[in-house]
């Protein structure tokens, strides 16, 4: 059962103004996306796409229909282009169950006062070295993203928290070895997912992961690079995020990361059929569609636009 909470009535009014959503815009946008899918033989038929997913695309693109069409098209085509990133659609079965010993991926239930959704990425203490498979971690992150697209409510944007206190020296080499998958996932996050990235908080990052952090920053545009915040301790997050949103072990009032992580793993399994169907949406996309780079600029992710 989905447990992401939506905005209050006052927040809803503010968020719609922020997104430029007027009366009837959502219905017009849905008709527009349905028409696009119906006219393209390589996209799923309109009835195959969940309505809430389409709403999330429209709102994540600030009701810009052209931008929403382009992102949805890229989202569908990427299922065929990068099949390796969308394999293994469960966090409770091999091989992704192993990466859960390494990384917690936890979107928090409550929104901030600004209407932002906070997602925690926490490297677990005492993780087995064998579990720190970066490609598997990328697949797990995209898996949670797909569930969120289905479950998300009206939000103003995203806040990501990377808690890296327990990262070991070996992780830098693993990230470097999987640099292609990391770049593709960041590229997809910008080009194929309707995100409005507002802030990225990195907590407790040791010097040894500086190269990995620089890789991530190099893959986003200048606007996003300015939204990085570095912290020594999780307590500093309370200066930016209300206590009612943050987990209890970080001085907040929400359930612990461990409890929320278990809930998310159950939610992913509840969505098994939906996720399988989502992975198969564009399984027959011909390679000729990739003659022109669908992401705008080959190898130059920083040119991609993001709010």
From TrEMBL:
Matching SUPFAM superfamilies: CRAL/TRIO domain, CRAL/TRIO N-terminal domain
GO CC terms in record: membrane
SMART domains: SEC14
GO molecular function, one term: phosphatidylinositol bisphosphate binding
Annotated protein name in UniProt: Alpha-tocopherol transfer protein
The species this protein was found in: Danaus plexippus plexippus
High-level lineage: Eukaryota, Metazoa, Ecdysozoa, Arthropoda, Hexapoda
């Amino acid at each position: 059962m989905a447990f992401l909470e939506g905005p209050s009535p006052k927040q809803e009014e503010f968020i719609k103004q922020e997104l430029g959503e007027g009366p009837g815009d959502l219905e017009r946008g849905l008709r527009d996306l349905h028409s696009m899918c119906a006219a393209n033989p390589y996209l799923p038929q309109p009835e195959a796409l969940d309505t809430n997913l389409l709403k999330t695309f429209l709102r994540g693109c600030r009701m810009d229909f052209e931008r929403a069409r382009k992102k949805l098209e890229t989202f569908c085509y990427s299922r065929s282009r990068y099949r390796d990133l969308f394999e293994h659609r469960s966090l409770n079965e091999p091989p992704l169950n192993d990466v859960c010993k390494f990384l917690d991926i936890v979107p928090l239930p409550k929104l901030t006062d600004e209407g932002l959704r906070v997602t925690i990425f926490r490297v677990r203490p005492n993780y087995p070295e064998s579990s720190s498979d970066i490609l598997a971690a990328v697949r797990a992150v995209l898996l949670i993203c797909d569930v969120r697209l289905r479950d998300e409510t009206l939000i103003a944007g995203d806040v990501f928290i990377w808690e890296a206190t327990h990262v070991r020296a070996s992780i830098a080499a693993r990230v470097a070895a999987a640099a292609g998958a990391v770049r593709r996932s960041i590229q997809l996050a910008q080009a194929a997912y309707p995100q409005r990235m507002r802030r990225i908080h990195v907590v407790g990052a040791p010097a040894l992961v500086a190269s990995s952090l620089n890789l991530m920053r190099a893959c986003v545009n200048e606007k996003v690079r300015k939204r990085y915040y570095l912290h020594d301790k999780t307590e500093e997050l309370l200066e930016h995020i209300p206590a009612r949103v943050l987990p209890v072990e970080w001085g907040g009032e929400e359930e612990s990361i461990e409890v929320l992580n278990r809930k998310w793993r159950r939610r992913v399994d509840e969505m098994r059929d939906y996720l399988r169907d989502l992975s198969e949406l564009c399984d027959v996309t011909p390679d000729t569609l990739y003659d022109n780079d669908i992401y705008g600029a080959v190898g130059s992710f920083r040119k991609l636009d993001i709010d």
